């Protein structure tokens, strides 16, 4: 009935008539697991009016609680970019006189619900001519033969489109997929993107880290092609520039609060690491910030977060955890506000939905105005206020998503490219001209990939593809408090396009004041030399990799130095004087004081204990290491046990002398040797307790934030003082 080969793909004999279909039609919807909660799956405009149609694949909703259902709407990203796609088509159709040909587009946008399987199923069903699952009976969907190009969003959506469109040789453009793996032109032959790949973002991050002097960092990423590829590129670039990536943590796609807490806690246990580089999806970034908040004061303002383009300037990601994110440096792929789009979006209201499916519009309206529409197909019960229907959008108040501009660029580049196709430049009907082309889809791809467009039509910048991507650079942003108003904002520190240009002196760090992330002295710092292998998270440590680390502020040699306050000096002087006086008294009594009774040995034993108390104070001034922490824990109880055992025996002996017959009854126990052995026996009880504590909980040192700097402290930092008292 046909043939298949690598060159010409699948060919079916034209005389074969198929009387059956294998797509999920209306009657089979109840049995189709991909349909989930029966929400609208697509939006289309003018697809039957024009012979040239564009297809877009968006992540409008998150995945639901089960893999084949849809969750909440992504109002800031998904909805705005979907709307920008149709806005761009409307502008192209309205202003086609600016192009060299009379191009008119129809458009269809699919909602993947962040589900790769759903995206592939809908694309296959649509492009095979079988329509789309859950289509209302009688509702027409565009003819697949009229699709000339597609627009995708993230890496997952791009992969789904690639599987269907590459064999068909249809051009597809991503407005946000930055994964390095998508750069293989031998695999993705008809793929373009308006954004730079992650290897360039990694270069930008490394340059900023170098300028800030942060050469000891941790990387966290979502277990996805985007996250894994981004961190792979970062580790390679960091290793080439003497930056030590000491840990790498993966967050699985369905990561929970507990997973994030364990990750942040493990990072917090690493000495000297304060910078966390994050390549993660927005929900995982929010989980990490929440975990740092939940773990307590030592974590809330310790870390300097370095966020990739998925973080960018999103306020929704840091909402509720702004103080945790303060001091973060994020990278936003170059973007600009499109005022005309904001005006277009502000025209939306219940009486003017611009063709948006009713359930999508009602959900968007409820989220935007935090109200509940009881008659909507998707009621948002967490909002208590009822929607009046009189709410209105204000263009000035719309926070435009950074990828809106890229969605518009991608759509315009298709139109710009198709208007320059050879032999179609003066054609009044491009669709007829294209049908006559010997290599229709090859001509479309070549025209789009070599086109250029003056973005926003003024003096902003001219966009063109460089090595099939948009090398337009990054904006480097800093999360800081808004000095003029309450709240927080993203302040631009500069831009990066090949090199950083800006002023990093404007950088404002976290609330703790920490601005260092370096390997401390006397600590062996292991560095990942490259991406982890297929077997897991373990990477090879390069023993020759020795960055020139410097000790953290506040540490000189092996003693602490606190900028304000002289407690260490005062304690050292008093302890030294106390120890000196005790030694002088001990020698004086041994040489000149006559031994009048058997209890004199207890006096000397007590003086030894007092001497130990004074000397032990120096352990709290000395630089905390594992050994020093062990001395502190063991000797505190020991020195006081020596003192109190001598005092206890002295009191008991005084009580014995008061009894009439005790002088002869306890005579053998009142000799100097007996008193000494009993005192040692009582002290040994504390020795056993202290030894058991050291065995069960080995002493460790770590760092704690104090007055804006890191200072070494014995663990457990949150219970150490209480434990010393209890010992």
TrEMBL record:
Entries under Gene3D superfamilies matching the protein: 3.40.50.2300
Family: Belongs to the G-protein coupled receptor 3 family.
Protein location: Membrane
Membrane-related topology note: Multi-pass membrane protein
Pfam families, per the entry: 7tm_3, ANF_receptor
Name of the protein in its database record: Metabotropic glutamate receptor 7-like
Membrane-spanning intervals of the chain: 566-590, 602-622, 634-653, 673-696
GO cellular component entries: membrane
SUPFAM superfamilies in UniProt: Periplasmic binding protein-like I
UniProt main location, coarse: membrane
Lineage: Eukaryota, Metazoa, Spiralia, Lophotrochozoa, Brachiopoda
Protein source organism: Lingula anatina (Brachiopod)
Classification via PROSITE patterns: G_PROTEIN_RECEP_F3_4
